[in-house]
Sequence to fold (802 residues):
Amino acid sequence: MGELKLMKGNEAVAEAMIREGVDGYFGYPITPQSEVIEYLTTEEPHKRTGMVVLQAESELAAINMLYGAAGTGKKVATSSSSPGISLKQEGISYIAGSELPCVIINVVRGGPGLGTIQPSQADYFQATKGGGHGDYHLYVLAPSSVQEMADFVEDAFEMAFKYRTPVMILSDGVIGQMMEKVELKPQKKRLTDAEVIKKYGSWATVGRVGGRERNIITSLDLDSHKMEAHNIHLQSKYEQMKKEDVRYEELQTEDAEYIIVAYGSSARISQKVIQLARKDGIKLGVLRPITLFPFPEKPIQELAKRVKGFLAVEMSAGQMVEDVKLAVNGKVKVEHYGRNGGIVPTPGEVYEALKQKIIGG
Amino acid sequence: MTEEIIIAGFGGQGVLSMGKILAYSGIMQDQEVSWMPSYGPEMRGGTANVTVILSDERISSPILTEFDTAIILNQQSMDKFEKGVKKGGLLLYDPNGIIHHPTRTDIDIYTINGAELAAEMGNPKIFNMIVLGAFLKIKPIVKLDNVIKGLKKSLPERYHNLIPLNQSAIEKGMQMVKAK
Amino acid sequence: MEIKDIIKPENLVYQKTKMMTDNTLSYCPGCGHGTTHRLVMEVVEELGIVEDTIGIAPVGCSVLAYEFMNVDMTQAAHGRAPAVATGIIRTWPDKIVFTYQGDGDLAAIGTSETIHACNRGENIVIIFVNNGIYGMTGGQMAPTTLPGMKSSTTPYGRDVALMGNPLKITELVAQLPGTYFVTRHAVHSPAHVRKTKKAIKKAFQNVIDKKGTQFIEVVSNCNSGWKMTPVKSNEWMVENMFPFYPLGDMKVDGKIVKDLH
Fold:
């Protein structure tokens, strides 16, 4: 067993970055995720592993520092919360267009605008449907515990480099601020510069080592035919993700007549609803998407063949529910229950919504 | 075993750190734990509260409206959380500064004069440990030696010399807790 | 004598640097960008740093700089080149990183990144081509457009009461502790080209020696945007741009050498 610690989600993701052998973190403070950069600057990872940590002058600068470093094949990450992630969208679009690997952590708070600092899941559309301009997706992982905040750092980088694509860890204020027991992985070695050049030198801008042809990182092509081909190539990566890297968890779905679909902290709340419902003899299960893009369509399609209805529970006015509806495709009833603006629904009110909207309705 | 606890009071009373020590103590005896604070500007001198759950099983929701135990350290928190104690549950509070005392009859109510005792012991900072001791006397959900191990884990090493003082504060709380 | 008798190695008097590609420049004939590109690339070749050099192209006329400069390059979002350069130099502190930016990119949308990279003293070279106009998008007002100067968004001349004053960002960054060498040049005559190249070479050498931020402004013409012939635009530049943006060193070896007010 690895080292056991009691940590906040924000601290766990920061420590996991150090242990993953990340080369650089560029960030800007914003509640409720400032502990990420505070933890990193306190830990001084440049002394532990040589990892660079820099507080940028803005989210715009931070995401573009990430873009620059990611283009050199280094393992880099940034974190922010909703309004800051909105600012980063231009850079994220460039990173997706230029096919660069990196990890972006969003500890979501309520919006729109400056909104609130309390937890929310209202950035689902932004995270899964693109977010910035152009046709692209991020690979999106949704942790529902502090342990997953730590574990998903490694998974995120694996996907980022497998697909040469930006990966988002879509967390929220609950998971970021909550402390739980977390088992930390042993320290990985950072790649040396020579190893980075050997592994990624075919595309990364590290200088024309050995006099090779120049490498260019760009998302620009004024030739529309080339740009269309590039878009088709990007889409093929997203199709591959759908085939190979969908992740989800099913809880007590074997005999379930009703299903709650929920991710992140809503999935935790929904687990409690299983207990409440089963006490009353209602066979409830939870399907928890772990990847929000690619979305677990197939398991939902399978469940739709044998259950009576789905309730999508999310801290938003109803975003993920659209993907649930697309998967269920009219076979059975799909409804949404959510709270907005930083209110976290209680298990009791979710249970009531289930009874009213799905079971009784 | 699952124990769902809310600890609520003023920022600066050590509410969050009491919860943290309790959570660490749970880890020391191989339990699952969660610690979910209120956060944001309201913490700066205002009210602070934390939900702590210790369980032998995987913890579901870290945010709750009903609790097995409420540890209440100011009036605002009394107003907010008295009603959230489950039937048959525990409400432990420090009467210092409380004007409207709890009125429920379907729960167990205990008091601990934490602020007063901490002043007597000459260190207001051990207030939260006195209250923790009082709680553990009523509900010994974690063993004292696991609390000490938890303290060692959650305190930076330079403060480890304060552990005996904290221990005597916990013991003081255990002695002085009273049923209302 | 026929032309083939002249084209022989022994008659070679000038050769284009191999650090420039053979792609046809996308700049208008008479524009200063081509010369400035060449100078930067000649310096990279002469210093023997091609295996360690990474350039950042901006948004603006020189967005396609990576088509012409034969070094590894990253194309940055509008104004963000100094942040992109920061990300690279922080994770590869021994590399040679430069940005190549125009006035709109560096002194309008990217002012924050420019000032903060300079203030942190990132060990990079910033090449700043100032032609007082947005060339790429068709000649709109730039932060450096002179008072009274016409552009497609100041068709009656820049009214400073309405549009604000031109920004002398080079004078501004010279005052920041992170900058080491700050200088202003031009490329409209052979003598000026030689001086500019000397400055660029010094800047790259300073980065090799890890001295901090090197900031080189090249005041240039935009004959298309200014709606003049190349020759006329250079004359106009000398008469109008140079009095407002005087050439010369502002900061050398970390010391301010000129009254900046």
